[in-house]
Amino acid sequence: MRVELVSHRGGAWSGPLPAVDSRQTLVVVFGSADRVGDPAIAELHRAYPQSHVVGCSSAGEIIGTKVIDGSLVAGIVRFDDTQVATSYASVAEAKESYAAGQTLGRALAGPGLRGLLLLSDGLHVNGSELVRGVSSVVANDVVVTGGLAGDGSRFERTWVLHEGVARDHVVSAVAFYGDRVAIGFGSKGGWDKFGPERKVTRSDGNVLYELDGEPALQLYKMYLGDRASELPASGLLFPLAVRASATDDKSLVRTILAVDEARQSMTFAGDIPQGHLAQLMRANFDRLVGAAGDAAAMTAQTAAATTPNTLAIAISCVGRRLVLGERTEEELETAVEALPPGTVQLGFYSYGEISPWASGSCDLHNQTMTITTLGER
Is pLDDT above 70 for 366? Predict the structure, then answer.
């Protein structure tokens, strides 16, 4: 197995594109939202006509321990003994997300399927429903990870590569088959909960209307204070922890995509089920950085042993980047230090992360560092 990383910030890629074109080659591209239609993407497709080229827009591109903006970064992986396939689904509106997940799962399910990497439109897809649809079709032991495309803190447009063209309203999936592929995963947050835990008394999918019988947006603004005028971007700094009941140890984090003043509602990247409990969260800098290392360490536990030249795809939430500011690269450094020797890191800042919580079926997460490792035994 061979892994190479390249970046494109000006007129050319940072190094020669390796001559590894094949049906067992995966090219993963992450780039600034404003580089939609960039000729450099077309150049990759010309260099790798047989390969599987996938990617999406970001709220910051990750290569090694650096985060950069306005660029393209690419990881080029030539597997020795792993079969690769790709599929795509269109999502005109969020209510089609579950069906899109089922479409992808059915297209790629088959003998020897070991994992799926999902890259999704970040604004028009309900990530919870997407992963639920996939999980309803594929076997329980298939590892499903990935993320939702980003657009900085603008929330205007995201894109996903679809057969060489950057489009919105698209979800892509990469499938990995065979006994030699080793897929690791880890996902950790590091946020602190504060304030009372409130019951979700009215919601519809990923739209939250009421908490404890009161307008959700009104309550949320009360906690944000002066930052309420900056919504939805300021909502990235104060996500919600959601769990099924007071005795449930599993909490999923949800972050805002949009607000509706007229209906006093908030739209999140994933579901906020009615009857669940929700609690505000805020940043703890040291815990955020430490969580990145914990996520990286988890990948070794879930992947089993791999050969050198493993690719780690780091998907961290844009909210973490906004909070960490100048300390953002600390979480990337911490992750790299905790990854197995011979692992190289590529990734992006996202609007949502997809991974199993600890084991079992996958979930949509927000405000986490989620890492997927791809290697071979």
Answer: yes
pLDDT of the residue at 360: 60
Q: Which of 53, 69, 83, 119 is nearest to 313 (CA)?
A: 119
Question: How many beta carbons lie within 10 A of that of residue 109, not counting itself?
Answer: 15
DSSP collapsed to 3 states, the chain: CEEEEEEECCCCECCCCCCCCCCCEEEEEEEEHHHCCCHHHHHHHHHCCCCEEEEEEECCEEECCEEECCCEEEEEEECCCCEEEEEEEECCCHHHHHHHHHHHHHHHCCCCEEEEEEEECCCCCCHHHHHHHHHCCCCCCCEEEEEECCECECCCCCCEEECCEEECCEEEEEEEECCCEEEEEEEECCCEEEEEEEEEEEEECCEEEEECCEEHHHHHHHHHHHHHHHCCHHHHHCCEEEECCCCCCCCEEECEEEEECCCCEEEECCCCCCCCEEEEEECCHHHHHHHHHHHHHHHHHHHCCCCCCEEEEEEEEHHHHHHHHHHHHHHHHHHHHHCCCCEEEEEEEECEEEEECCCCCEEEECCCEEEEEEEEC
Neighbours of 342 (CB within 10 A): 12
pLDDT, position 323: 87
Render pLDDT for 263-310 as a digit per residue (tens, 0 to 9).
999 998 889 999 999 999 988 889 999 999 999 999 988 876 567 789
Largest CA distance in the chain: 61
| Rounded Cα–Cα distance for residues 374 and 346 (Å) | 11
- If you search the block for the tokens 């949320």, which residue do you land on? 220
Q: How far is CA 351 from the centre of its chain?
A: 7
Please check whether residue 241 is in contact with residue 253, taking contact to mean a CB–CB distance below 8 angstroms: yes
Strands 192-204 and 113-120: unpaired
Residue identified by tokens 């009857």 is 275
Work out the percent of the chain whose per-residue pLDDT is above 70: 98
Relative to beta strand 61-63, strand 343-350 is antiparallel
First to last CA, the chain: 10
